[in-house]
Design brief:
Layout: E1 3-5, E2 10-11, H1 17-27, H2 32-37, H3 41-63, E3 65-73, E4 79-88, H4 100-111, H5 113-129, E5 136-143, H6 152-167, E6 171-175, H7 181-186, E7 190-196, E8 202-208
Parallel strand pairs: 5-6
Antiparallel strand pairs: 1-3, 2-3, 3-4, 4-5, 6-8, 7-8
């Protein structure tokens, strides 16, 4: 399919949450984290979409900085969100005390009783691994598979990194997908820590700057 990027990355509103959740769920369907959280193949995509809708809708759109890039099929011409990035600015915490009480009641029904405690442990280890100094946190970056290889994801990441450089801020992120390490390393990230979660796999923590 031929696509044309129709705009540079733009900020989002609450109306964009369904599009953000859709593109991130398609991008992360094969991610080790979500394969572990949602082992049932038949329902995995829908559950991942709900996961990202909760994270974006409750936290990152109102309290963080969510950017999306739109692209259009050359035949139809209609613009569709094809890439999304969830950022936490240094001065804000989209997963903090204003957000968590609203989110936690939803995790049980979504994850299932047996997955909640392990997920909390993984989440806590992520928080403990974060730098103590002010930094930008990239919580999620995803590209719709139909436009993979077009450079949309790299361009979206670059715009966020340019903002970080302008502010003199390091950038921190994590991934359980070892296939993503080379992508991040091309943008100057280095693996600074790795944690084996046993059941859930290995988290690679990366920092730039």
């Amino acid at each position: 399919m031929s696509v044309t990027v129709t705009a540079s990355a733009r900020p989002t509103t609450i109306d964009d949450v369904p599009s953000v959740a859709r593109v991130l769920s398609r991008a992360t369907h094969g991610d080790p984290l979500f394969q572990w959280l949602f082992p049932e193949t038949r329902t995995r995509l829908a559950r991942i979409r709900r996961f990202h809708a909760m994270a974006a809708g409750f936290g990152y759109v109102p309290y963080g900085d969510v950017r999306v890039t739109e692209a259009a099929e050359s035949t139809a011409g209609e613009s569709v969100v094809r890439a999304a990035a969830l950022w936490a600015p240094a001065e804000s915490n989209p997963e903090g005390p204003l957000v968590s009480p609203r989110l936690w009641p939803h995790w049980g029904p979504l994850l299932g009783r047996g997955r909640v405690a392990p997920f909390v442990r993984v989440f806590a280890e992520w928080k403990l691994a974060a730098p103590q100094e002010p930094h930008l946190y990239l919580a999620a970056l995803g590209v719709d598979p139909v436009v993979a290889g077009t450079g949309i994801g790299g361009a979206l990441l670059s715009q966020g990194l340019d903002r970080a450089d302008a502010e003199g801020m390091p950038v921190f992120t994590q991934t359980m997908n070892d296939k993503a390490l080379g992508f991040y390393e091309r943008f100057g990230f280095e693996v600074v820590r790795e944690v084996d979660h046993l059941e859930g796999g290995i988290t690679h923590f990366l920092q730039r700057g």
